[in-house]
Amino acid sequence: MPANFRFPRSSRDLTKTHKIAVAGVAALGAASLAFTAVPGQAQTTTTADAVAAAPAQIASAPAKEVKASVTDQLAGASVKIQQIDAKKQAAAKQKAQAAAKKAAAEAAAKRKAEAARQAKQAASRSAQRPQMQTVAASTSYGNNLDGWIRQALDIMKQHNIPGSYSGLHRNIMRESSGNPRAINNWDINAINGIPSKGLLQVIDPTFNTYHVPGTSKNIYDPVANITAAANYAAHRYGSIDNVNSAY
């Protein structure tokens, strides 16, 4: 607005020149406003475009961050799965080793028990033979019918073979009259080639089958002959005491 311009005091004071000046000032003001508005609009448009473009840039950053986060999570999950698998494999291996160790210990225990059982049986068998020899050596038996019967009874007792002194004596006297070298060469056994021999007239097959361990293998041995015959009678008749005739 011109520096020398002043508003008239009333409308009557407005001359033509004043009216032209006012119109010019108004036009200048409108042009100024129009000029000011255009840059403002351009500036506004430019700012809107920048704002519109900004979200795309902002949006891309979180997407990258989410992708990285998912990748990290998957990697972490993979590590955890591998750790779990490793623990399972270690546990399975430890369990298999424990089972193998237990099986080996059980097998060793069985072998040890079996070895102990066999050793016990062998010791028992070995103990039986010396025991019979010890009985015979420690006890003095006469070299006669009475001594033979008593020694035979002690051996029979060790093998749980039943029989009494009277039962043995009675059958011996009937069969051989107490002669340990007696032999029957006339009965059916003799005809068949296996004559009866010894105190209780035992044939060879019967003597060999019912021979008592720890006694002589000679069928004419008095003690061996008595014990084998008593063993045979026990199996067939229950006891030599039950025999009252040829058997």
SSE map:
Elements (H helix, E strand, L loop, with lengths): L15 H123 L6 H14 L6 H11 L12 H4 L12 H7 L11 H16 L10
Helix pairs in contact: 1-2, 2-6, 5-6
The oligomeric status of these chains comes to single chain
- The count of helical stretches stands at 6
Using the alpha-carbon principal axes, give the shape.
rod-shaped
- Average residue-wise pLDDT: 77
Strand runs, count:
0
Order of helices and strands: HHHHHH
Short overview:
By secondary structure, the chain is mainly α. It has helices at residues 16-138, 145-158, 165-175, 188-191, 204-210, 222-237. It is built from 6 helices and no strands.
Task: Describe the fold and architecture.
The chain contains 6 helices and no strands. With 247 residues, it is mainly α. It is rod-shaped and about 125 Å long. The model is unreliable at 7-48 and 54-59 (pLDDT under 50).
